Automatic annotation (TrEMBL):
A GO molecular-function annotation: glucose-1-phosphate thymidylyltransferase activity
Protein name: Glucose-1-phosphate thymidylyltransferase
NCBIfam families the UniProt entry points to: rmlA
Keyword terms of this UniProt record: Magnesium, Metal-binding, Nucleotidyltransferase, Transferase
Organism (species): Bacteriovorax stolpii (Bdellovibrio stolpii)
Catalytic activity field: dTTP + alpha-D-glucose 1-phosphate + H(+) = dTDP-alpha-D-glucose + diphosphate
Pfam families hit by this protein: NTP_transferase
Top EC class for this record: transferase
Known role: Catalyzes the formation of dTDP-glucose, from dTTP and glucose 1-phosphate, as well as its pyrophosphorolysis.
EC number: 2.7.7.24
Cofactor(s) needed for function: Mg(2+)
Name of the gene encoding the protein in the UniProt record: rfbA
Family: Belongs to the glucose-1-phosphate thymidylyltransferase family.
């Protein structure tokens, strides 16, 4: 399984902050936004990741993350000149995907909590890949009208329908910004027609799998927090949430260096080498304390 983080777009909802830096580089409390989806993929065991961003922002992501070798992962980059819809990520990433399965996560999505739902979904996808070629996730929200809404077939817990931003939702379950597809996703994406928004739609792509009865669904348990951080208010709420969690627990959320170590991507010596290059800061102090407890 490979991963794609879609970190493009104009970020118009965050204007004028996005005149200074890309949306996915904005801070969520004490870390750049992209640390959260990146650490999520890493914690799922995904080590080969493509970051798709705009031509103007490419150098900033590369300066921040490099090629990922220091984290024991492999990062590559692709530019998206214009925001032409989520399926465009699979067209741009066609060579990167090759014959492998792919997990797409949006760069402004934050998941926090027990990630076993994701690990189990990856396991199920691998074990049932002859029958299930794509998998979506279902998350219960109070007001689903702003999202893609999933209607379940109650008999076998399969997807009965998916409707984009309906006025009268058929359920409280919506599509969060994470998807799993097989390698045919690039070919399928090329065949999609733009919607009224002049973009190709992820729902239309998902429905191509549903029509073939090869679409699976995994429900995210209520203990997992999902935040979309694409607006000033949601950005503030996410920062407040992370600050509260870190202050109460004394643990950092989405610390990519810690995730790399705990996943076995790097060893203690390599972790210490990373720490030596970090300037004096609370972030460095946290990693120093962590390394001392591991000795």
């Amino acid at each position: 399984m490979k991963g794609i983080i879609l970190a493009g777009g104009a970020g118009t909802r965050l204007y004028p902050m996005t005149l200074v830096m890309a949306k996915q580089l904005q801070p969520i409390y004490d870390k750049p936004m992209i640390y959260y989806p990146l650490s999520f993929l890493m914690a799922g065991g995904i080590r080969d990741i493509l970051i798709i961003t705009t031509p103007n922002d490419l150098k900033h992501f590369q300066s921040l993350l490099g090629d990922g070798a220091h984290l024991g992962i492999q990062l590559s980059y692709k530019t998206q000149p214009s925001p032409d819809g989520l399926p465009d990520a699979f067209i741009l990433g066609e060579e990167f995907i090759g014959d492998d399965d792919i997990c797409l996560i949006l760069g402004d999505n934050l998941f926090h909590g027990d990630n076993q739902f994701f690990i189990q979904a990856l396991k199920d996808h691998n074990e049932k890949k002859d029958q299930i070629k794509a998998r979506v996730f279902a998350y219960n929200v109070a007001d689903p009208r702003a999202y893609g809404v999933i209607e379940f077939d109650k008999k076998n817990h399969s997807v009965k329908s998916i409707e984009e931003k309906p006025e009268i939702p058929k359920s409280q379950y919506v599509l969060p910004g994470i998807y799993i597809f097989d390698s045919s996703v690039s070919t399928r994406s090329k065949k999609l027609l733009p919607s009224k928004r002049r973009e190709t739609e992820i729902v239309d792509l998902i429905l191509t799998y549903k029509e073939e009865n090869s679409l699976g669904v995994s429900t995210i348990n209520p203990g997992v927090v999902w935040l979309d951080t694409g607006t000033p208010k949601s950005l503030l709420h996410a920062s407040s949430y992370i600050e509260t969690i870190e202050e109460r627990q004394g643990l950092k959320v989405a610390c990519i260096e810690e995730v790399a170590f705990r996943m076995g991507f790097i060893n203690l010596v390599q972790l210490k080498q990373i720490i030596e290059k970090i300037p004096k800061s609370l972030y460095r102090e946290y990693l120093e304390k962590l390394s001392m407890t591991l000795e």
